[in-house]
Inverse folding.
């Protein structure tokens, strides 16, 4: 049962799945991003603990930069909220009928929380220099 | 669009499908408990937002460079928080690597690559799990 798609990349991008498709794509990208982040993070913690080397320090300094934190905060918060919506829809199939409303609700929660987070991260990033 | 053929009944694919959802819910709950615990232990006056997030998900002194806050370190260094760390890191790594497997298998057919990639993902999962639990126990 190999995957047979007769759809090219351009056609695939032109597919108008609307906001659920955007959420699906962002869920995959943010999930893989978090996995890479957590994987390197665990390894960096290990080397920090065992050797305290410059390599471990330099990897950790990347994670502590406010620009990186703005990206990872988006990934984690979006993945958590979108995942919660998926769980609700899977466990209460009736909620599937209100997918668009749930997506709107999700963005209504996401935007102020993420906006405040970004505000504080930038404020701290600029403040400490 | 049949990347995975899911057999009806109680298959591994079904168990992992359930696991993904339950571990996702559990991680949200663990994160909320972590934030509440940090705030109760004085994070409100001693931590900035980024440090709070860092300690919420992995309250470990080796986690990052600039997070050594002595008063709070004492509060976190208990068996309870070590178990919480182990729970969140093992659930997170398992959830993440299963997600990687699902994404990869959406784009690969039933070729020789599937078992090879599954084996690689399994080894990476085991490797990171052992390292993470070692870091928690040794600090």
């Amino acid at each position: 049962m190999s995957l047979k798609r007769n759809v090219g990349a351009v056609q695939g991008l032109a597919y108008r799945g609307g906001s659920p498709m955007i959420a699906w794509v962002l869920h995959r990208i943010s999930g893989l991003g978090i996995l890479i982040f957590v994987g390197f993070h665990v390894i960096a913690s290990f080397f920090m603990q065992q050797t305290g080397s410059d390599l471990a320090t330099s990897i950790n300094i990347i994670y502590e930069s406010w620009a990186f934190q703005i990206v990872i905060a988006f990934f984690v918060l979006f993945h958590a909220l979108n995942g919660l919506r998926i769980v609700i829809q899977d466990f209460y199939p009736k909620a599937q009928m209100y997918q668009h409303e749930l997506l709107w609700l999700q963005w209504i929660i996401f935007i102020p929380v993420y906006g405040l987070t970004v505000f504080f991260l930038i404020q701290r990033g600029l403040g400490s220099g | 669009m049949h990347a995975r053929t899911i057999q009806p009944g109680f298959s591994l694919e079904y168990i992992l499908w359930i696991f993904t959802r339950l571990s996702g819910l559990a991680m949200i709950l663990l994160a909320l408990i972590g934030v509440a615990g940090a705030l109760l232990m004085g994070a409100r006056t001693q931590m900035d937002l980024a440090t709070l997030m860092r300690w919420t998900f992995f309250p470990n002194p080796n986690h990052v460079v600039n997070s050594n806050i002595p008063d709070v370190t004492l509060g976190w260094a208990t068996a309870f928080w070590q178990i919480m760390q182990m729970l969140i890191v093992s659930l997170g790594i398992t959830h993440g690597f299963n997600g990687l497997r699902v994404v990869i298998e959406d784009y690969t057919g039933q070729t020789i690559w599937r078992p090879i990639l599954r084996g690689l993902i399994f080894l990476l999962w085991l490797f990171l799990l052992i390292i993470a639990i070692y870091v928690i126990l040794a600090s």
In short: The mean pLDDT of chain A is 85. Residues 18-128 of chain A form a domain with the 3 helical TM bundles of succinate and fumarate reductases fold (CATH 1.20.1300).
